[in-house]
Amino acid sequence: KIFDTNVIIDGRIGEVVRTGFVDGKIYIPQFVINELQKVADSADPNKRQRGRRGLDMLKILRADHEVEIGTLDHLAPDNGSVDERLVALARALGAKLVTNDFNLNKVAQVHGVQVLNVNDLALSLRPIFLPGDTLEVIVERPGSQPGQGVGFLEDGTMVVIEQAAELVGSKVEARVTQIHQSAAGRMIFAQVEGVLPRNDD
Asked: Rounded to two decimals, what is the model's pTM?
């Protein structure tokens, strides 16, 4: 499996590797490490922080798993972009490409390279709720309709709670009434069952 720059910077792959869901050899091209170093040396403080996080993640990956670095880079042309070289290398090795980069994902698929997308994995691991199930959520703000409150699950899923506009800041138990799935993501509609004590109080 070949890791790209974005998946290393993202950091979630460290936990995925640690749990054993990524088996076999991990290969990180030297040109990916060079790109990480370039980001870490950026004048932009946000980019610099991302680059340093990526370098820290690289250390964690090497401590937890057998990682091979740069020994097969000669199989990728020197004159292409990092993404082009990653795709060429994966094709030459018959390897899977591990990324969370939308565009790289599409380009790799066009070239017949199998992609393991960390974002797809995260989406597939979200808790499944059905109408009638209960959930706990903090009401963070009023909703767009009168009386509604809005909260978010840990995975970022929006929960629209009826009769919760006056409960902003409260943790509630809510019963799922409807689930709306769209290209933009999932939205859960729910009804307040009760107010719960907050652990952070």
From this structure: 0.70
pLDDT (tens digit per residue) in 45-82:
999 999 999 999 999 999 888 899 999 999 998 888 99
Q: Which two tokens stand for residue 80?
A: 């292409």
CA separation for the pair 19, 198 (Å, rounded): 31
Q: Is the separation of the CB atoms in 176 and 130 below 8 Å?
A: yes
d(CA 4, CA 35): 10
Residues 39 and 89 grouped into a single domain: yes
We report the CATH number of the domain holding residue 170 as: 2.40.50.140
- Two tokens, residue 150: 């809005």
Reading the block at residue 49, the tokens are 């922080």
Length, in residues, of the chain? 201
From the list 4, 12, 5, the residue with the least C-alpha distance to 155 is 12
**Beta carbons within 8 Å of 16's beta carbon, 6+ residues apart:** 22, 118, 121
Can you list the residues of the chain whose pLDDT is less than 70? 183-184, 199-201
